[in-house]
Amino acid sequence: MKNLKKVLFGVVFILIAFVGGMFFANKQTEPEITSTLIQNRIEQASDLVTTKYHYAKVGKFENSLSLNGWSIPLTNKYFILTFEGEIQLGTDLSKANVEINDSTIHVTVNKPTVLSNSIDESSIEVYDETKNIFNPISVSDYKAFAFEQKEKALSEAKKKGLLKTAQKNTEKSIKEIISIIPDTDDYTIEVTFKE
Fold first, then answer.
1. Does residue 13 form part of some domain?
2. CA separation for the pair 108, 103 (Å, rounded)
3. 130-187 pLDDT tens trace
4. Strands 47-63, 77-92: parallel, antiparallel or unpaired by DSSP?
5. Keywords in UniProt for this one (predicted)?
6. Around Cβ 111, how many Cβ atoms within 10 Å?
């Protein structure tokens, strides 16, 4: 009878130890929400592209040789181009700053900037190109014109509110990244942009 009591006591003790161990093991595996944890998750996104702006344009290049501010006759050259391009805006999340106060996660990041502005070379078509022997069209004319057109497209996009859209998209993306982390449902997420 004494041996049976010892065996039962041993089995109960082992069960209690096992259940207790499982309880504490589960407690330890739950991630604690810290600013470092959130910072690491955000930094994994690195350069976050939040906004893409596609444009299609027609542009005309024209110039002529000049002497003392006067245009020289018969040296006029011009061409018309159609092309497509894309502007990508985003922010570098490796420079994000995260703070947790009570139930609020504060994330501060740089304002979105232009990550790229490129013309799709396969989309370029040239129309109405002059063949002027006195002032021939050169590769540098095309390059300078393409650069000018990209700057115009960017300026137009900014006037249409592209930077504000990029900020809204960046804020939304950061909130989505943080909401994937377990146990962040009870937190309010605030995103601010550095001036």
1. no
2. 16
3. 777 776 777 777 788 888 889 999 999 999 999 999 999 999 999 998 888 888 888 9
4. antiparallel
5. Membrane, Transmembrane, Transmembrane helix
6. 13
